[in-house]
Give the backbone structure.
Amino acid sequence: MSSTPRTLYDKIWDAHVVDSRDDGTSLIYIDRHIVHEVTSPQAFEALRVSGRKVRRPDLTIAVPDHNLPTTARLDAAGQRIPIADPESSQQLAALARNAPEFGIRYIGDTDAEQGIVHVIGPEQGFSLPGATIVCGDSHTACHGGLGALAFGIGTSEVEHVLATQTLLLKQSKTMEVRVEGELNPGVTPKDLILHIIGVVGTAGGTGHVIEYRGPVFERMSVEGRLTVCNMSIEAGARAGLIAPDETTFAYVKGRPYAPKGADWDKAVAWWKSLATDPGAKFDKSVVINAADIEPTVTWGTSPEDVVGIGGTVPAPESFADPSKQDAARVSLAYMGLEPGTRMTDIEVQNVFIGSCTNSRIEDIRAAAAVLRGRKKADNVKWAIVVPGSGLVKAQAEAEGLDRIIIEAGLEWREPGCSACLAMNPDKVPAGERCASTSNRNFTGRQGPGARTHLVSPAMAAAAAVTGRLTDVRELVDVAAA
Amino acid sequence: MEPIRHVAGRAIPFGRKNVDTDVIIPAHWLKTITREGLGRGAFEAVRKEPGNVFDDPEFAGAPVLIAGDNFGCGSSREHAAWALLDMGVTCVIAPSFSDIFASNAFKNGILAVVLPQEQVERLLDVAKTDPIDIDLESQTVTTRFQDRFRFEIDPFRKHCLLNGLDEVGLTMMQGDRIGAHEQRANAEFPFLAQATRAAA
């Protein structure tokens, strides 16, 4: 096997095979498991009913994120403010009860480290390069930005991992997304991944694990890499990967769960060996020219419905595939858009900056850089900035970013998933538009009837200032930034 | 898990492409802590469309759903599979499925049948008026009009579905192998094999 050139994916896979069957399935060991309140109650219940224990509670952490309100959690006297929605409250209570019952570390809603599963995994050094990482959430692909094999699982699989610390899997095909050249100034990792999804399509990566390759990714920060890998699932791929390098090691070092001493040296030596070998074959390859990409926005209800900010709403007839034409007609009716409308003429009433895609400190900084000294437009009724974790929030406040955001007329909130999927009280009203840094523009995703335009944090901030989708490069000198 | 050998009956001729799990069951239905009762929320937005197939009494209680390409894309929520089961659907036929949905369907004893686009279109047509018959043992979909379409399925998944096997229980029987892997990992990859938090 050592003579055959292997991909990054193959190497991580091979290191985790517990058992292989003749039919091509393998039992794969799972190094890290993150549990949240929405997809775990039925898994814990199943364990309880069958009298099963958690095999490795030490490799599992639990944190609430989806249901939590992003308004203050404690009152002035330090008492917990009750959650109004009884179902949300019940689901949160179930996690707070289940985690300790099964010996799992529980990060509570008022703990400083609380945050979105995919923000806190890397932040805590719990997610590591070369690890297999799962969570009952499709955006687990995010952790691939560290060079981990990370993917979302369903509740039955959550139960399977809790009980056995393994999953029964078939090896995926591999897909290389190679980006040539350099991104233009003002074009961010979010614009890049939106563009990639537009090229690959929402089903293009089905059955594949994507490896993002090329100089753009080598120069990208870990936070940018997390944003890119996060949305791999929007291209149909269960996981996305970027090879770990010195940037990754510098990011991981010193974090609470990061290896220490001799373990650290051993880890770095192994991580350095993980990069795809020269000559390794991918089952599929897509090449993208970075220079083609401008700040990118979505016009429809599928993440593949992307267009550069300088573009217009497409006509359904412009698509070759008849079923795509039909889908575009349904999308445009839902979105209330006419073909030919310039994207920059589309007014937004809401702005959401947050989600596991874009709520890390660099995202908050990018938004604040645009908001600094500016004011929210009058037609923007609701604009919230939701940090990805308590630690991101504290860091932003230490840098004074919260003041910039609040002075611009936006709200600065407590960490959680928030309006990305509107399971908590943060919803976009029916018929209204939202410039959103989240990952899905699906029908009803941000609330029944809500119309989502996916954008980068800088573009969301620009939309907040002008009240319409805007090319951020017209507002700020991106070359100097 | 209920064994599944044969599904016969009316099929809901939905056929829409790229149906994501937010469409199958919207997020506000995910606040449950049990697996039951989600059928009421299934396809909620589609059900607001006049003349939709889900509210057509013709297809009430139909055990089969015929969908379009890339069915179940998006969120990993297993609630999508539970919602279908709660509706009475035990077999979904489509030209392709998202990976996570296909896995969730299997783990809940839902048979996900992949057929080429033209065969799915033929079945969509038949389903409007007549029942459809799916046999897992012989891996065929048949109609009373002599249509006979063979489908492929992973042999392990077929075995589990036919026998209603619980995958967790099966894997737990391999506890020794898992333990052996943990020992090996402890030596080779101690930094992955253990997750220790530094004292604050």
Notes: Chain B touches chain A through 61 residues (CB under 8 Å).
